Amino acid sequence: MKPMTFAMKLILLSLLFPVLAFAHGGEDHSHDEAPGARTAAAGHPRIEAATESFEIVGHLRDGELSLLIDRFETNEPVLDGNVEVELNGRKAIATYHADHGDYAVSDEAFIRTLASPGTHSLVFTISAGDEMDLIEATMAVGDDAGSAAGTNAPPVSLRTAAIAGIVLTLILTAIAIALARRKPSTGN
């Protein structure tokens, strides 16, 4: 049997590294949320929209629609503006929270309608200083009270990913061995 070339050894070694990454466990790879950070937790309905003047990111969680609004060109937060949200002809005022730097809609009837499963069209009227703009956005709300429809694929377990990595490595190793056993062409 012909010895393996350096290139083949390198290929086999590089194929094993992804499998080795899955071959350990017990560590907590999560990261604590930064103090004061307001991000949407996985599975909560979320919106993102922008115009030439403003950009808005919002999420529905804990009985309110939380909104972060920035100026589009500078990414400067819009503080103490006036924000109105419309859903199915119903309007609600978003209150500015200086402690979090966000705006929140907590009108119970509005939130109940927005939290119902389906796709909801929202219109935001934002005025800050001399600027005023309308932003349209769509929020998808899933059937299980909080997950956005169609945005969360079922998670792949670590065990399934490790098995898939091992199987792929075995297949590629078999191909590399088969190629190594092939007789080289003499060119005659």
From TrEMBL:
Keywords (alphabetical) are: Membrane, Signal, Transmembrane, Transmembrane helix
Signal sequence bounds: 1-23
The membrane-spanning stretches of this chain are 161-180
Its domain of life? Bacteria
Q: What is this protein called?
A: CopC domain-containing protein
- Native organism is Noviherbaspirillum aridicola
